[in-house]
Write a structure and sequence with these properties.
Helix content is 72%, strand content 0%. By secondary structure, it is mainly alpha-helical. It has one domain. Helix 1 runs antiparallel to helix 2, helix 2 packs antiparallel against helix 3 and helix 4 runs antiparallel to helix 5.
Length: 211
């Protein structure tokens, strides 16, 4: 099995379990509202939904770290394996420290969502064809909605509805990315601007300079 195929399978498992377990957790949360109940509220200990939701985050975190490890030798993907690994670490932090431990949870959320959005933008420079434009669009939507959310601008969706406008585009992108991993060739010639920059950095760091 190719590394990219294995990573695609792990990503599919992560997305699927998160979608299913989050849906189950929402049914267990008292007075759940898609407009007013943040996804992170589902993980507050003492709520019936907490164990289900936090377990899902931990599973996704472990899988994210695994994806980063599996892809780490794929130089064609440049910084994307590192971003996935750090995002998985962020998911683990969010699962262990719910939103009631606000500053730690926020660090995890930053790693999880900002870095995945950055990975989506990186794909614009690392993948050929239509997928690069899908990545650019979904990554940009995530960054725009993050900015609006942090600024308290919810455009009529409520805080929780706006939070989902960050999360859902990123999960749609990850589903598309998993498909791209299956279909792409690890041995294709990478000659984009990002590839050339990455390879230049690797040569400068790893190749001894003659005196």
């Amino acid at each position: 099995m190719r590394r990219r195929e294995l990573a695609g399978i792990l990503l599919f498992v992560g997305i699927t379990q998160f979608a299913l377990l989050t849906n189950i957790a929402e049914t267990q949360y008292p007075g759940f509202s898609i407009r007013n109940t943040l996804l992170s509220d589902l993980g507050v200990w003492g709520k019936p939904s907490a164990l289900i939701f936090n377990a899902s985050l931990v599973i996704f975190g472990v899988l994210g770290l695994a994806i980063g490890f599996v892809l780490k030798g794929d130089r064609k993907l440049t910084f994307i394996p590192l971003l996935f690994g750090l995002s998985g670490l962020g998911m683990l932090i969010m699962g262990v420290f719910p939103i009631s431990v606000e500053w730690v949870h926020d660090v995890g959320a930053f790693l999880a969502f900002v870095l995945i959005a950055l990975a989506a933008l990186c794909c614009y420079w690392t993948f050929p064809g239509a997928f690069r434009f899908v990545s650019l669009t979904l990554g940009a939507i995530a960054f725009i909605t993050m900015t609006l959310y942090k600024g308290g601008v919810y455009v009529g969706l409520g805080a929780a509805g706006m939070e989902r406008m960050i999360v859902y585009p990123l999960f749609l992108w990850m589903a598309a990315f998993g498909t791209a991993l299956f279909l792409s060739d690890e041995n294709y010639r990478g000659d984009s601007l990002l590839h050339r920059f990455f390879n230049c950095c690797v040569r400068r760091i790893c190749v001894p300079q003659s005196s």
